[in-house]
Design goal:
Elements lengths: L1 E6 L2 H15 L6 E6 L5 H10 L5 E2 L9 H19 L3 E5 L3 H12 L3 E5 L14 H11 L2 E4 L2 H9 L7 E3 L3 H10 L19 E6 L8 H16 L4 E6 L4 H11 L5 E4 L4 H9 L3 E4 L2 H9 L4 E3 L7 H6 L2 E3 L4 H13 L1 H8 L10 H15 L10
Parallel strand pairs: 1-2, 1-4, 2-3, 4-5, 5-6, 6-7, 8-9, 8-11, 9-10, 11-12, 12-13
Length: 382
């Protein structure tokens, strides 16, 4: 079976890595090619290095201040020639990035089957998140097989008219990747985390970078963080790896720079980030991946968005949707800092995103479909 993996961002690389490694270890069962678009550059490369993945194609499409239209056009044009040259049985895309959408569309133009990893996530609002919600809906209309992380994601696809026989509930590969990373050696003394007071204060991990939070929302989030830091200076230390986008880094450094119990870092490599998450008390984030990873470590998550496609965590009690209004964020953080029963109810809730064997399921299903034309759809408990 010949598979072409197409991805371009760090989150995609993290979630594709377990499947790639599984197929590479298959003793010749799979013939795989890896194509990266470079939609993210530096952050993508460090993940490839950590997992020992060497792309066969690197399109290097990242440009400063590139519009979505320009990126989409460049992806489709470049991927067209790669797919034409390789003629794989499957093109595998992950999630909801511009790269994933363009990869699925380019494969469709060549009548190549598409497998969508992490299929079925929905908010119901095409502008939140933007452009991810529309990207994943477009991919769903093209994909031949849909690897849904949960029953809810599967139900979303069925409601949109996707044939149930093409949907497989497999869990999320973020849990596979996280477990691999936590087993790797980590030297904190030679890392950017060496000055973080893990043993003296409760660490609050913050990430916020989404396009819909540009402008007033990121300033409101930063103001809330500043207030929490001031009120709890003796007991709390806030660590914020700040995204490189000027729409984020400029207001964040303006409002939060120079505060003693706030550490602003450049984006962390994956192993450092997993170490920081594992030793944090709680998480404030607009990231999708963290809504999956933090519950697996028993870390309560306050979601800095108005909507989320990962409502399983909300339903399970591991995450809470708090938006971007400063008063709401402050109240929710202080509730978790001061109310131990509230904290415990979130920290001890069951993680709804899988058991770490998602990559194994995906590779088995793709092989069975390719060789035998179908596969048994046993109900999977995750």
């Amino acid at each position: 079976m010949k598979a072409l993996f197409i991805f371009g961002t760090r989150p995609e690389a993290i979630k594709m890595a377990p499947i790639i490694k599984r197929m590479l270890d298959s003793d010749g069962t799979f013939d795989i090619r890896i194509c990266v678009t470079g939609q993210h550059r530096q952050m993508l490369d460090e993940v490839l290095h950590i997992f020992g993945i060497r792309p066969d194609y690197d399109l290097d499409l990242m440009k400063d201040n590139q519009s979505l239209a320009a990126l989409t056009a460049a992806c489709i044009k470049s991927l067209d020639s790669v797919i034409a040259a390789e003629q794989p049985d499957w093109v595998i895309v992950q999630g909801d990035t511009t790269t994933a959408m363009a990869g699925a569309l380019a494969a469709y133009y060549h009548c190549i089957k598409v497998a969508h990893v992490e299929a079925g996530l929905r908010t119901g609002d095409k502008f939140h998140p933007f452009p991810e919600e529309t990207n994943r809906r477009m991919i769903a209309s093209i994909a031949d097989i849909h690897f849904a992380p949960s029953r809810l994601a599967s139900d979303n696809l069925i409601a949109e008219g996707v044939d149930e026989s093409c949907i497989h509930i497999v869990g999320n590969t973020s849990i596979d990747a996280m477990r691999t990373a936590l087993d790797m050696a980590y030297d904190i003394d030679n890392s950017s985390l060496v000055t973080i007071p893990f043993d003296k204060k409760r660490i609050i991990l913050v990430t916020a970078h989404r396009r819909e939070n540009f402008g007033k929302p990121i300033r409101d989030i930063s103001q809330a963080i500043k207030t929490v830091a001031a009120r709890h200076s003796s007991e709390v230390h806030i660590v914020y790896p700040v995204h490189m986008n000027p729409n984020i880094v400029v207001p964040v450094r303006e409002l939060l720079g120079g505060i003693e119990n706030i550490t602003l870092l450049e984006p962390l490599d994956y192993l450092s980030f997993m170490h920081l998450l594992n030793h944090s008390y709680m998480v404030l984030t607009d990231s999708g991946g963290l809504q999956e990873e933090a519950p697996a470590m028993g870390k309560p998550v306050l979601v800095l968005r108005e909507t989320t496609e990962r409502v399983e965590a909300i339903h399970a009690g591991t995450a809470r949707l708090v938006g971007t209004h400063p008063a709401t964020i402050i109240a929710q953080v202080e509730n978790l800092l001061c109310n131990q029963s509230a904290y415990a109810s979130m920290a001890k809730a069951v993680n709804p995103y899988g058991d770490g064997y998602t990559a194994q399921r995906i590779s088995t299903i793709l092989y069975e479909i390719t060789v035998h034309g179908d596969t048994m759809k046993d109900e999977i408990s995750i």
